Amino acid sequence: MAGGSASGASVTQRALALVAAFDEDHRRLTLTELAERADIPLSTAHRLVAELVAWGALARSGDGAYVVGRRLWDVGLLAPVRAGLVEVASPFLHDLFGATRATVHLAVREGTEALYLDRLRGHSSVPVVSTVGSRLPLHATGVGKVLLAHAPREVQRAVLADLRGVTPYTVTQPGLLSRQLEAVRREDLATTREEMSLGACSLAVPVRRGETVVAALGVVVADLRRDRTRLLSGLQVAARGIGRSFTRP
């Protein structure tokens, strides 16, 4: 169950369990599915879901299924660090996209996953699985490897202990990934080759606020052997610009 057992839970806990029932693989849920995933009685789910819809936390689609409401996203954007980061980074992401026409990502670490705060892509960009607000494995993405390389040791140990293959090219050997993370810290860049999705390669660099890595900036292309120098230069310029702007009072 996504929300865990709600037995003896308060009304607030049950409402939050209903919201937590949604995830990357469950974007649309019926009332019965919501109740099952939140582990609360159907009658209780019916009442709470109606209140969540009225507030805007959930919305009901034409076929009767429920989806996450726009108001939750609006509230989430008010989180101080992320809201400021997205706002500051936006012009730099647009400049980078204009110069490369590659899919551009801005991500931060959320536990043991990469949370995508922003994404720009065009009709000719390489297809990717990421969306704004999605969470992807740290070990299988370029931005994720940057964030993992600078994560606390306990986070690195947790990820290294559970390396799941996403494609045949995903790095699932702890020793190899550890060496890659050392290289990321040494070279200030990370690369992937079809590790998250076939036909997509990525190049990513850290975004620093002072000495602290607060985010990762990456591009996704079909082949890193072409224009790697130009892509890396564009990424580094954009990452430094974001970091300087984000540091200003």
TrEMBL record:
Q: Does the keyword Transcription apply?
A: yes
What keywords were assigned to this record? Answer: DNA-binding, Transcription, Transcription regulation
| SUPFAM superfamilies, sorted | GAF domain-like, Winged helix' DNA-binding domain
Q: What region holds the HTH iclR-type domain? A: 9-70
InterPro entries, A to Z: GAF-like_dom_sf, HTH_MetabolicPath_Reg, Tscrpt_reg_IclR_C, Tscrpt_reg_IclR_N, WH-like_DNA-bd_sf, WH_DNA-bd_sf
Domain spans labelled IclR-ED = 71-249
> Which PANTHER family does this one have?
HELIX-TURN-HELIX TRANSCRIPTIONAL REGULATOR, ICLR FAMILY, HTH-TYPE TRANSCRIPTIONAL REPRESSOR ALLR
Q: Mind telling me what this protein is named?
A: IclR family transcriptional regulator
